[in-house]
């Protein structure tokens, strides 16, 4: 602090922190200096947009402007189609979300997980149910018809669309966005990145095309779950492990897909209780806080079921949930604890549908890829499930084990990325949209040390471009082709990536990518471009109507596998397990 | 050494991405107007263009704009030939929407080019760059062109280009010719013509040092140039004897003093006062004309009559406009440099917007865009610009009244105001003159009032009154904006006349 002169009462403006913004940390990855002419220029267009924010600009101006721009692009995406608009009989995710608002506000809580399951029965964890209840209540103030029980099914009211779009935006701005801002600032500080470059990374994260297209185009609330995850990572980086447990349970409680991250989070937390020295108190507090969080998460559901039974509302007439039926001891259907147990078992049964197949639709993971050449239907589903379990365990063991041995903050995004890639590629019951999960920790790399250098930017860029590309068949069904091209090409241009620019592959810059990487990347981009041409101009042969979708899956699975290996490799190098020299140019420090 | 980032081109790309995403947004009847003109120019012989009236949206722009539509219609055929059918009223297939909306984005290249030229020719690159970006990203253009639907980006591009060409003696002639062509595209620019007339007369037709030495060569060049441009536009119609019909389309004098929604000018303040007096009249003992009481609130496009205050004959508005144009023009005649010229153009825009007959709120761009080029000259200019930037853009809000577009217009405008008013504040140099006017406090208070006003107009009013008193939010917006525009006009007049 500057010395304060009490007599004047005037507080001189704090300049120091701002000066550090320019001097602290190097900007050699973002600002290219032409030594002969003495001029500086941005390394890629996004840097140019943040150019006026260098130097003495308060974050109170920069951050609101960034958030407003991100808001406008989300809002504008919302003008386009959503999943299942005007497509009977079943419509799509939009209808599912709306339907949950409808049933949660009209039905007793004990029937939420059992009401007419054929029509988009609730199959997300309780936090989603509470969220739906709240949004349904608020929406009913505007127009009760939107959520009238049964009568509102498959409603395609334009005002309803605006309301739903609004809820997705507000939910994101209350979870994902603040979490991202806090995480980026914290992570970049830990990594010694100056705050100006942290803003650049923040914009890159917020403009990530895949997330915008799925949440504000296709329509889902993934960013709530992802936001809680970011908050959890952020708490771990701040050393507040108990808060990280609370946030992670919230993430898991909103969407079970956060399980992709669970092994890594578990390994990190466990590791931090053991290394460098065993800390039993910490371990116990983590365990207790996690249990309490889960208890709070399920409390309204269970207490509600108990209260409904007390009021004499009959249990829904569905078959006994398998979990309850499988109990080794008999339980009394008349007992006071029967209704809550029924509710718990039914919700868990709904949330984890083991009865479904190994993949729905075509998704770019190894099972779909193998299935193309070697049909998996010939094996029993138990066999395939076991194979998936073994493969997933094998894929996630190395990153989790490294996090366990070296529970260091800077390794967290890398460990989470590798683990979730492993899950996405090898596990059971994966959707193409789930690629958002591995993409999230991976895009956080941008805020880390040398995150904006070509060596990391190119890889994060490849994963994101590939990720959004594998979702193209889905987005095309939702009439989201134009936003897909606009948002993904805009992002590629901003970050300086193919197909717009080759600047990330130039050898004339600090931290360049090596030739081998360049060849792989350009090959993948080439395949994506060629695929788009083929998909739109060449009809697939009669006997192979899915040819282009399958081609998409194969390229995607191959590319994602490479991303998995890259994350794992970097984790090895950064954790010090593999010698630095193995990292080649990729991990070379300045 | 110039590190001007983000560049004009980079901003244009980013903005274009947003504009494409806005393709499915609300579009006003102007979309159908332009579609109809595509159909008219494409399928009828030129002789019938200004007589065709299948649609109520007849061709009422000058001939160059009709030619422009004809050129567009040649490409439209490949997008969807159905949009070129005159009988297809209200036709809006998605190909039509894509085509028409993309032509707006594509023709905006003229503006991008003009702004780049403006930066290149400016002595102070940094401020010129900021001003140019503010014009390119203007919420006015986004709301009017890319949502509501018009081609102002293209037209103002020509205006800016013409202003930039007026900077150098060698391109003065070209500047005049571009402006003449602009008049043949849209006659609203006639409001600015006096400034061009005086400036070209003084620096091109007369000798720079003496007003008595006439440069005959220049006069002839300019004269022939302008005559041939107007000849190209109106000549064919004159030959066919269609000029009276054409003029009746271009100047429909039967309209009222105020547009249905009052543009924020002097007359809207006058109407507002009249409305207030209707309520207060009985208490003050002022006679109220019962017949006229309901005319303005009905929002009809017709003759406005006042209940308490005297009616305004059209010729008064003309005299007032002329009067408030002549004063700055006299100054321009005495001090004919480029900055004064752009100031005079701005003053002409102000005068016609504030006192003109049946002014449309969109015409505020006639003031904002020339003013933007001067706003960073020094802090006094910026002081006058600030309330205009707020009022001018807030006054455009009623153009978009649909739910989904509400956050687009407000967030975009707030984004623009925050980004550019802060950037301008950092960049504007201190004035060499003494400060005469204490506008800063006024404008801060004024900007603060905008927030509750917008909240009331868009949300609270609806909650309290529902569908009743629908004119109230419009009247408040208009009167509020009028205060800002008039305030900035007074501020700018002082700065202009004293510089």
UniProtKB/TrEMBL annotation, chain A:
InterPro entries per UniProt: Glyco_trans_ALG6/ALG8
Sorted UniProt keywords: Endoplasmic reticulum, Glycosyltransferase, Membrane, Transferase, Transmembrane, Transmembrane helix
Keyword Transmembrane tagged: yes
Bilayer topology annotation: Multi-pass membrane protein
Main location: endoplasmic reticulum
Disordered: region residues: 1-28
Secretion signal, residue range per the UniProt entry: none
Single GO MF annotation: dolichyl pyrophosphate Man9GlcNAc2 alpha-1,3-glucosyltransferase activity
Enzyme class (EC, first level): transferase
Alphabetical list of PANTHER family matching this protein: DOLICHYL GLYCOSYLTRANSFERASE (PTHR12413), DOLICHYL PYROPHOSPHATE MAN9GLCNAC2 ALPHA-1,3-GLUCOSYLTRANSFERASE (PTHR12413:SF1)
The protein's name in its UniProt record: Alpha-1,3-glucosyltransferase
Originating species: Rhizodiscina lignyota
From TrEMBL, chain B:
Mode of membrane association: Multi-pass membrane protein
EC number: 2.4.1.-
Biological pathway: Protein modification; protein glycosylation
GO molecular function: dolichyl pyrophosphate Glc1Man9GlcNAc2 alpha-1,3-glucosyltransferase activity
Enzyme class: transferase
UniProt source species: Rhizodiscina lignyota
Subcellular localization, as worded in the UniProt entry: Endoplasmic reticulum membrane
Catalytic activity: an alpha-D-Glc-(1->3)-alpha-D-Man-(1->2)-alpha-D-Man-(1->2)-alpha-D-Man-(1->3)-[alpha-D-Man-(1->2)-alpha-D-Man-(1->3)-[alpha-D-Man-(1->2)-alpha-D-Man-(1->6)]-alpha-D-Man-(1->6)]-beta-D-Man-(1->4)-beta-D-GlcNAc-(1->4)-alpha-D-GlcNAc-diphospho-di-trans,poly-cis-dolichol + a di-trans,poly-cis-dolichyl beta-D-glucosyl phosphate = an alpha-D-Glc-(1->3)-alpha-D-Glc-(1->3)-alpha-D-Man-(1->2)-alpha-D-Man-(1->2)-alpha-D-Man-(1->3)-[alpha-D-Man-(1->2)-alpha-D-Man-(1->3)-[alpha-D-Man-(1->2)-alpha-D-Man-(1->6)]-alpha-D-Man-(1->6)]-beta-D-Man-(1->4)-beta-D-GlcNAc-(1->4)-alpha-D-GlcNAc-diphospho-di-trans,poly-cis-dolichol + a di-trans,poly-cis-dolichyl phosphate + H(+)
GO CC terms in record: endoplasmic reticulum membrane
Signal peptide, first to last residue: none
Name of the protein in question: Alpha-1,3-glucosyltransferase
